[in-house]
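Ticket #402: bound-state structure for L-homoserine.
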Amino acid sequence: MINIAVLGYGVVGSGVVSVLDKNADRITQNAAQEISVKYILDIREFSDDPYSHLFIKDFEIIVSDPEVQIVVEAIGGIDAALMYTRRCLEIGKSVVTSNKELIAEHGSELLQLAKEKNANYLFEASVGGGIPVIRPLTQCMTANIITEIYGILNGTTNYILTDMDKTGADFSASLLDAQNKGYAEADPTADVDGHDTCRKICILSSLAFGQHVFPSQVQTEGITGVTIEDLHYASELGYKIKLLGRARVVGDKISAYVAPHLISNDSILAVVDGVMNGVVVRGNAVGDVVFCGAGAGKLPTASSVIADVIDASKHLHAQKWISWKTGYDGFVKSPMLLDSAWYIRTDASREKVEKEFGNVIFSEGSSIETAFMTGVMNGEMIDDILKRGISAKSQFRVLGDH
Ligand code: HSE
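RESOLUTION: The complex was predicted; output attached.
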């Protein structure tokens, strides 16, 4: 039998305990032994909870109990989560988490510590929730040189953009709807401003390209600038607007950023709507591989966390060898030099647009503004043209094979 402890009894922690109980027989079969929750650490009271007998408030009980071999960190954030994760790894307990903020900031340090102590630090649920993407990337695709990763990595923003597109509601109304349905947090900043997507593309980039990519290195734009007009004009052009995290190899460095993109209705990600996530990984041998499914939520996240617990239970004294180097200034280049077509919405006339941009494709806009798609050019080129008297009300990249 494997004894585990669960730190934090919020959405993720309670989901893990619940699924371990509900699917106990199958999990025992898959792990080839029983996985039993010995402790749940939370400072709050849960006296009416069916697992109330497992609750403790003192982390030291977990650290000092040699029977606990795997710890699920479901606290979230950095401070306490970092301290507890370090303490567990230092004494050789494996740690499983969905905490993308912690991994994006401290992943290389914690992976190194796990390696030194012959323990594992696993985090499948940190990107894509219930979608298997980290294990395929680090195991099934390891024969490849990865050249690009991009995806819809945040369920809340995808829900909002889908709702705006389908119902014609504005950003505030769709955000409120997402909050009412429990998708968006009361403080939605991390989602709508792109920080959550940023952390996830940092983790994928670090895994795929071998150097730690920090959130501070990734230019990040959220969805608050996307209007229903933009969605309407994009639709007329045959596109949807999705928030993408994107990283691609540029020489011996990478370019990584987060921004709303126009994606063609023919694109595989165009059908990834609502709270779903979709990730495309491009390998030089396998080509494009697409991962799609529930990117957030209690049970999908628990599904991935428990898969890691089972994996850790099978590798108690063997390393999974997930690792990357510490990263360095200059590894992540600005996306300004990446080529793409661009979508622009402006008050400038069509004549002025054609004079400055040459051939463009116009969307049928209202009589008071102009929306169009440019040819392929990098960010510096487009900024130079816009400086010549075209004030962009919206300016988004168009995802293409550039
Ligand atoms: N807030 C995140 C989302 C949760 O909406 O995708 C999962 O990471």
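RESOLUTION NOTES: The mean pLDDT is 95.
TICKET STATUS: resolved
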